[in-house]
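Proteins fold reproducibly. Next comes an illustrative record:
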Amino acid sequence: MAMVEIRDARKVFDGGFEALRGASLDIEEGEILALLGPNGAGKTTLISAICGITQPTSGTIAVGGHDVVKDYRAARNLVGLVPQEVNLEPFEKVWKTVRFSRGLFGRKPDDALLERILRKLSLWEKRGATIKSLSGGMKRRVLIAKALAHDPRVLFLDEPTAGVDVELRRDMWDTVAELKREGVTIILTTHYIEEAEALADRVAVINRGQILLVEDKDALMARMGRKTLRIELDEPVAEIPAGLSDYGLRLEDDGRVLVYDYDTSAERTGIARLMGALAAEGIVVRDVATSQNSLEDIFVGLVHDGQEEEGVA
């Protein structure tokens, strides 16, 4: 049984806007899932439905086997949520803020656990500081500490490093990796594609309320991530010679560059044969350069393809 099970979840708001349109997804225990999608894709609505903040109009969602509607308390006790917005009481101290969050879930005081959490997040020295005195990055850490205070088994991170500097972002990546090692299931939404590449085990792409794809990150990169060879010519050509028609080449930069896409996982890339064919056609190569498709390229392509299927320009 998956830790989070989503079956045909739909959410229609007043006025008829359909934020979720039959989303289905299984999230396994102890994995990090990156949930990617453009603004308005349904990411926050889906998270809100799983966390019990909003109820799905139809379909079912379960956390740890507990239905989020029928068995709300049991499901919610398993979940920690780090929201995108920093909404903290500015004059409260860090320690009391985190301690209070644990109490909200009816858990008995456990100062030793809270100390471990604060030390893990480099907040222990700030435990007596007021929230308003903290930097933006430290406030984000307090949000994570609050979410972890009741020892959840599922942690949602909604844009956790938005507005955080690069160094602090890397520190938080280390924290997320450590939580995974402890068996916490983590669902991450992010606009930083490199964050998904660095952390995720699997990637789910959502757009217009539908899950377009769920796949192992490395398999996705291997299946869809292709390399591109750009061949700069010594002299421009008006068109691709007939002898090169089998290579699927594209002509760019006013005939000065030939572009060749190839699969890095294939037994043969065809590059050596292509170079021989260029020489046979009397085409002199000035320079070559390769580039690897990133997860961002794949993501943009999936979203674009999904919009084209719906007739969206």
